[in-house]
Write a structure and sequence with these properties.
alpha+beta; 3-stranded antiparallel β-sheet; 2 helices
């Protein structure tokens, strides 16, 4: 005998349980992307300040970039930060790369990273003309 089930108890709970991992992934993804954009702005500012300081002879590009990053609260460990400086006769070019950590698995894959990375690589490059007297 076939019985007709008209009892819908628990269906909303089941739907919530099925959708909650996706909603949590989206929520944490938005938070991490916001932090990554914040880091990108700070990295761009540090590259600009470092190239300016080096071109004007005020400070070393490495020191100035680390100073800006530390002042903004970013971690400047050697495994997270890379500063490349290139000088020509008239210009100074500084490239700053920073590994912004993430705790959301597989999030960097959506933006071109590796599946097993737990960070985004944020980089910025700035060029400044040397001042001559």
């Amino acid at each position: 005998m076939i019985r007709k089930f008209n009892n819908n108890k628990g269906s909303q709970t089941l739907e919530f349980v099925m959708l909650s991992p996706i909603l949590i992934f989206i929520l944490f993804g938005v938070i991490i992307l916001g932090l990554t954009i914040f880091s990108w702005v700070i990295v761009a500012d540090s590259a600009r300040e470092a190239s300016r300081a080096e071109a004007l002879g005020l400070a070393s590009a490495d020191v100035k970039a680390e100073e800006v990053l530390k002042g903004s609260g970013l971690n400047t460990d050697s495994d997270r930060l890379t500063i490349e400086k290139r000088e020509t006769d008239n210009y100074v070019t500084v490239k700053v790369s920073y590994k912004q950590p993430t705790f959301v698995p597989m999030l960097p894959v959506l933006f071109g990273g590796d599946a097993w990375d737990d960070y985004f690589i944020v980089s910025a490059k700035s060029q400044f003309k040397k001042e001559t007297e």
